[in-house]
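step: validate -> pass
step: tokenize input -> pass
step: predict -> running
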Amino acid sequence: TLEEKKEIAKRYLVPRQIKENGLSKKYIKFTTAAITKIIGQYTREAGVRNLERNIGAICRRIAVDVAKGKKGLVVIDEKKVEEILGPPRYIEEGKEKKPEVGVATGLAWTPVGGEILFVEATKMKGRKSLTLTGQLGDVMQESAKAALSYVRSKAEEFGIDPEFFDKYDIHIHVPAGAIPKDGPSAGITMTVALVSLLTEKPVLSDVAMSGEITLRGRVLPVGGIKEKVLAAKRAGIKKVILPKENKKDLHDVPERVRRGLKFVFVERIEEALPHAIKGWKA
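step: predict -> pass
step: emit ->
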């Protein structure tokens, strides 16, 4: 996780690279913000090899300056990181700035940690067509189809025209199309995006969610809860909707990460809608 990598960098990687490059603490100091920036914007890995490589590159640059006669302590902050390593290689997603119709925020697990992802849904005149884009894997495509079938089955209850699928084509897109995505945990996010689209009610921008769904609207447990919650915290999310059966997994999340986040645990989609969609009445 990000927190674990920061601790490893502070305790081991930075001191080792300072020593290996013939420096000492009187010449160079890394801020926590600088380390966080290197982890989040210059590396994408499960381990810390590239993290140490980037720290080493910074130390070598300072060692060259010292060899040329430059004196004094150099504080490596976020600005200095970018000056030495160049523009960020990876940009972390942040939450949407305002509630939008048809756009819901999901939480995903990746081998290099948790990330937020956006599910966008739109409609256009047509007849019974569902288009899925964003390089979605088979399981994720099945989740989208299940979400649409569930929404169709609940159309009248949700105040949606039961004939909407006879009049419109539906398109679901998950941005960052160059990155393959799969797994069932975006089911709840896709469902919320579709309900928002078809009721024309916006999804709250500071809410993120994760959970597998069934055709009956049940929300099933998913993995990677610790990493997903960390991603929500980094993105500025205020409320996280999770399957009720995942409540036990919060014990793995540090208290400092949970602080400031509100968790809502649900067993059914209907329970999630009032927390996710602005103005939704249960």
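step: describe -> The chain is about 40% helix and 20% strand.
step: cleanup -> pass
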